[in-house]
Design a protein that fits this description.
Number of domains: 1
Radius of gyration: 16 Å
Strand order of the largest sheet: 1-2
CATH architecture: Up-down Bundle
Structural class: mainly alpha
Number of helices: 6
Order of helices and strands: HHHHHEEH
Strand content: under 5%
Oligomer: single chain
CATH topology: Four Helix Bundle (Hemerythrin (Met), subunit A)
Largest sheet: 2 strands, antiparallel
CATH class: Mainly Alpha
Distance between the termini: 21 Å
């Protein structure tokens, strides 16, 4: 398989997971979102780590300035962020993921991704797969919350539409 075909296949699945995440956030009615901090918390947690795992040199990572806390804090406070601000964050992360995956070559794929505490040591390729699994895990949780609160959740997306 060529590098281009590999990158396209990886994006097809990673992009699909991000589109499912986007649809899940969009499906949640504003009144449910505003009355239950679990939706915002799940979305922010997922986005924070999506962004973190997409950062090729993660030491010193901080979330975008507009977000008031880090998931690395000892006792992170639960803050309700608007759907719009989290969808904007997701759009930025989606672009970051696409750029990373499209630029992935053998050298970058083999580069080490090591967190500050050195408890995670992966190749960039493997952290991308880890990240994909993490996103999809939380999409499942988010959709369970939607089914419990509004008896509705988005459908499975087979491949990225973009």
């Amino acid at each position: 398989m060529s590098q281009l075909a590999l990158n396209q296949s990886l994006w097809s699945q990673f992009g699909a997971a991000l589109e499912m995440f986007e649809e899940s956030i969009q499906t949640c009615p504003k009144e449910v979102w505003d009355s239950n901090p679990n939706f915002s918390f799940q979305a922010y947690h997922s986005l924070f780590f999506l962004d973190y795992y997409l950062t090729t040199k993660p030491v010193g990572f901080t979330p975008p300035e507009r977000f008031s806390y880090s998931e690395f804090d000892e006792d992170p406070q639960i803050v309700t962020f608007s759907q719009e601000s989290l969808l904007d964050y997701l759009a930025a992360c989606k672009e970051k993921a696409r750029h990373l995956i499209e630029g992935l070559d053998e050298q970058l794929a083999e580069q080490r991704w090591i967190n500050e505490s050195k408890t995670m040591d992966y190749s960039i390729f493997e952290i991308l797969l880890y990240n994909l699994r993490h996103v999809q895990h939380h999409v499942g949780q988010f959709n369970l919350l939607l089914r419990q609160h509004i008896d509705n959740a988005p459908e499975w997306i087979e491949k990225s539409r973009s």
